[in-house]
């Protein structure tokens, strides 16, 4: 019996030892900021956050751990970079020199009955060449034995790499632009922000960060980017990150998740533009701002679907506008405003009260001969004020010709001519007869038609790529 017991125990130990540990992605961003110059003075950090699942561990065991980055998934080292330990309660903890043997310099988690743990992890890049822009690094989880050990038992790397980028203006895969958000309307500190370049949040997020204040010192002295240290660190419900400059779609989906991974809020943009502190939107497509022109999103204007305004000419005299209804339950009314001075000042032309779960609102307005600008502002029940992008509507070209029929001199009345404007004379079959330049600033042009044979003709006014025609009869 003793021999059988020993054999059985040996089989159990062998089976447990052979069970492979692995890391799988839950939310795993594609990019991390890094400088890679070996000079800490060059660091311009922003946080990197991810949510991962580690499997193949001892069930119901408490492990000591730290998370870093390595330049290869098969590393025998302990990785590089600074760790920010995510805590379920209390402040996060920033550690620059991790070890499994000293309290306060490692984190802990407890596996479930299957030997699995899922949680949030946060990091900063280091200064070494591992984090040279353009390189790839691997997220690395370093563990003890799950039984109070002080030495490294497991090194588990994520299967997919993370791309290193740094702040710069070049439009390539190694340069990026800072993005920050002023305090959010909703939420709380220690939540997580994930940015996606598609509406459905498919695949890996572009970047990820946390909502301040997390309780750590993300300061210039600790190597953080100035915009983060000055305008994000310690600011309640603010966040900041970096996005690559070569995003053709821009950021279309921002997910705000809680510590337990519940989706607290999501924000969508159909064109990569987000509300700013002014009336011009923040455009996240093909950025080039680096650190000099950081994109600033107004957190108080973020809604589930951000307000947009479309318009089309339904005929020569009318423009019909249409806008959607973000956060309709909070909306009180919409104010449509119009500018006839180049967008410098706006005056209200219509106010529409909300009408329940109405999917779209529409308004028509008379077109003018000059470019007109429109915008729509949502006024919320909670005092929020959200303004759409500005819609520019080109002026309609209105022509008048007289006398008609004409014998010798045809007079054409037209909008104020800009440089390069022309008038063409054509047969009713479209055959061009001649072209005449129009004097800049003119609103009336005389055309000599005395040599035309009697019949039907067209006069065509051309300006800025727009064409308008009128027919006339030559006697």
TrEMBL record:
Against Pfam families, the record matches this protein to: Por_Secre_tail
InterPro entries documented for this protein? Ig-like_fold, Secre_tail
**Residues in the signal sequence:** 1-20
Q: Which residues form the Secretion system C-terminal sorting domain?
A: 401-473
Keyword annotations of the record: Signal
- Keyword set includes Methyltransferase: no
Entry keyword Signal: yes
Identify the NCBIfam families for this entry: Por_Secre_tail
Q: What is this protein called?
A: Secretion system C-terminal sorting domain-containing protein
Species per Swiss-Prot/TrEMBL record? Niastella yeongjuensis
């Amino acid at each position: 019996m003793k021999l059988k017991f020993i054999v059985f125990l040996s089989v159990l130990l062998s089976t447990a030892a052979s069970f492979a540990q692995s890391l799988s992605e839950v939310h795993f961003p594609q990019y991390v900021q890094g400088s890679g110059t070996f000079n800490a003075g060059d660091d311009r950090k922003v946080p990197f956050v991810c949510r991962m699942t580690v499997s193949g561990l001892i069930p119901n065991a408490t492990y000591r751990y730290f998370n870093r980055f390595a330049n290869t998934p098969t590393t025998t080292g302990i990785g590089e970079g600074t760790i920010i330990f995510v805590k379920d309660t209390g402040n996060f903890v920033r550690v620059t020199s991790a070890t499994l043997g000293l309290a306060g310099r490692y984190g802990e988690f407890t596996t479930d009955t299957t030997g699995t743990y899922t949680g949030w992890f946060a990091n900063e890049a280091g200064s070494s060449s591992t984090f040279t822009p353009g390189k790839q690094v691997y997220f690395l989880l370093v563990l003890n034995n799950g039984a109070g050990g002080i030495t490294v038992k497991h090194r588990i790397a994520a299967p997919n790499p993370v791309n290193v980028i740094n702040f710069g203006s070049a439009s390539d895969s190694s340069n990026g632009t800072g993005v920050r958000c002023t305090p959010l309307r909703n939420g709380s500190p220690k939540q997580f922000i994930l940015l996606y370049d598609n509406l459905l949040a498919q695949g890996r997020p572009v970047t990820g960060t946390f909502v301040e204040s997390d309780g750590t010192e993300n300061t210039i002295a600790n190597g953080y980017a100035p915009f983060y240290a000055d305008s994000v660190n310690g600011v309640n419900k603010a966040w900041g990150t970096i996005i690559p400059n070569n995003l053709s779609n821009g950021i279309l989906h921002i997910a705000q998740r809680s510590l337990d991974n519940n989706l607290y809020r999501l924000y969508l943009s159909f064109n990569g533009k987000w509300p700013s502190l002014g009336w011009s939107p923040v455009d996240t497509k093909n950025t080039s701002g680096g650190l000099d022109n950081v994109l600033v999103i107004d957190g108080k204007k973020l809604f589930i679907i951000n307000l947009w305004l479309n318009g089309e000419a339904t005929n020569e005299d009318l423009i019909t506008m249409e806008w959607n209804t973000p956060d309709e339950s909070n909306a009180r009314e919409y104010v449509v405003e119009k500018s006839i001075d180049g967008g410098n000042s706006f005056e209200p032309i219509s106010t529409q009260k909300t009408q329940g779960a109405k999917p779209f609102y529409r308004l028509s307005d008379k077109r003018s001969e000059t470019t007109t600008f429109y915008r729509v502002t949502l006024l919320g029940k909670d005092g929020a004020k959200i303004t759409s992008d500005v819609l520019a509507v080109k002026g309609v070209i209105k022509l008048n010709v007289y006398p008609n029929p004409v014998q010798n001199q045809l007079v054409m009345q037209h909008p104020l001519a800009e440089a390069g404007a022309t008038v063409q004379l054509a047969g009713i079959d479209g055959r061009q007869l001649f072209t005449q330049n129009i004097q800049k600033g003119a609103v009336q042009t005389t055309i000599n038609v005395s040599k035309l044979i009697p019949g039907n003709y067209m006069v065509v006014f051309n300006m800025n790529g727009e064409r308008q025609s009128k027919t006339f009869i030559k006697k």
